[in-house]
Write a structure and sequence with these properties.
Length: about 130
């Protein structure tokens, strides 16, 4: 049988708790938690879960949850995603399609008639800078 008790926490979580406690002892009253500690807390949530991390670090569950959601949505929006273009029921005579990359560069394609170019290949060449 191991000497591990039910209330023991993993070493990274214990180190995180020690960093928060050190900051709490040294802070001025009313000082907000620094971003470096929030970043650490979010990383620990990804490894150990929201409830366990909030409890170990003595953070408000819902405040930490908002931080995690905000970080995750920022990460998702920075990553290009695949978008499937299904053909419309009625083929339009003309349409405009715009591509945009992470730096804000855009490419506008104005389509007329029934010919539809390979939009996937066109998008790939735009995003790869070819």
């Amino acid at each position: 049988m191991s000497g591990r008790k039910h209330h023991d926490i993993p070493t990274p979580l214990a180190r995180g708790r020690a960093r928060f406690e050190s900051w709490r002892r040294a802070r001025a009253v009313g000082t907000r938690i620094p971003e470096r500690l929030w970043t650490l807390a979010v990383k620990l949530v990804n490894a150990y879960g929201l409830n366990r991390t909030a409890s170990a670090l003595r953070l408000d569950y819902y405040t930490l949850k908002r931080r995690v959601e905000s970080t995750n949505s920022s990460a998702r929006s920075a990553t290009p995603a695949f978008v499937e273009l299904s053909p419309p029921v009625a083929i339009p005579r003309e349409c405009v399609i715009e591509f945009e990359d992470h730096s804000g560069a855009t490419m506008r394609v104005h389509l007329q008639g029934c010919e539809v170019p390979d939009l996937v290949a066109l998008g790939r060449s735009f995003w790869s800078g070819e």
